[in-house]
Amino acid sequence: MYYNCNKMNYNNYDFVLKAVKNKGGTLKYASNELKNNYNIVFEAVKNNGKSLQYASNELKNNYNIVLEAVKNNGLSLEYASNELQNNYDIVFEAVKEYGKSLEYASNELKNNYNIVLEAVKNNSLSLEYASNELQNNYNIVLEAVKDFGASFIYASNELQNNYDIVFEAVKNYGRSLEQASYEFKNNYNIVLEAVKNDGWTLKYASYELKNNYNIVFEAVKQNGYALYSASSELKNNYDLGFFFDEKNPNIKISKAYFNIVFEAIKNNGLSLQFASDELKNNKDIVLEAIKNNGLSLQFASDELKNNKDIVLEAIKNNGWALQFASNKLKNNYNIVFEAVENNGFNFKYASDELKNNKLFLIDCYKKKKNKNTIKYNSFIKEFNDIENNNFNNKFIKKNTDILHLIENKENLYNYLIENKMYNIIYQNEELHENIKIKYNILILSLNDINIDKLYDNKEIKSEYINKFQSYNVIFI
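The chain above was modelled as a monomer; its predicted structure follows.
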């Protein structure tokens, strides 16, 4: 129930008491007299600590009232009197409930070890509001960065240069490395710990460590996109040996660099974009990338975008990959069909030739009655209408060669016969055969019969009579 004190009851003790017990914030509407009533305000802050803001100044300075408020919501310390913002018990309860309420404590208590320690235990980012002295306290800062490494930003310059503090920060939150000094950005153990937590932090490492095989390998293992920050010199790291490119024996490929790229694309196929041109043309690398994410085909070499096996594998992973295939393969029946089967919207990436291939269009449509195929092609829209008994003579006459593919055959047969569209039936051999069997109707052209022989030869005449006498013969 929502309470809103009106002119008749804003000063009614019983009404307001009931209201604030249900919704503390309704203290806002009480009269000044009741905002100064201990019982009313106590019940309000007990329900919602922040309703302390509506209490009288006198009660904002009442120990019990404020204590009840901060126990409910530590941020209500903001509305306490200056005197109580400097009260140890009040502030301790506030930061215990919500650490960042330390913001509203007095400067004296922002410099109190126990208060600040309790605050960072609850919320490490409350270190922001600690005094400069305590932002330089080893134990306080260590507690904060162990809980959440991002609080490292609020540590003193001195502690931002402390090995233990930096190590704990990056262990918990790798991107804390950004705030560390260059000395630690060039420290193997610190950076290794950082990239294990978040590979992307490789971007903050020294150039020397961006060229370190172990560091970079761990980074891309955690986040493939870290390959972006790896040193280009790794391409020439032959510590683990090398091999020659199969397609171009003059190109030497570092095994170390191959391993790093392979690990990166295993984590995120799209990191292929950061690989060297030689590896974008390496079938093993690209195949692994598209298995992880078919859309990584966009970063493969033009040669591999024209490779059937590669493109088909990409499309199996994600049909949208068709848009990155070569024009030649966008005209490949099986590849485009696979893409459309994966997602009908991919029909728009098919070649113009396939978009005008009736059999291909019908195959795409029938596979899943794909509405997206209908959306992009007028032929399929009309074909769909026929399937749904919305017969169109113009379409029927223009497409006699595919009428036998319509699933709604019986209604089509009836429509063709009722409208005496015998020429249409005659032109489609399969359609004609089905109607002959089902309706006992035989449609003949005079060209089917040798009239001269029929009149001159009794045996031939007899043969024709026997052949056609069981049918309702219609001549066209």
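Residues 181-305 form one domain.
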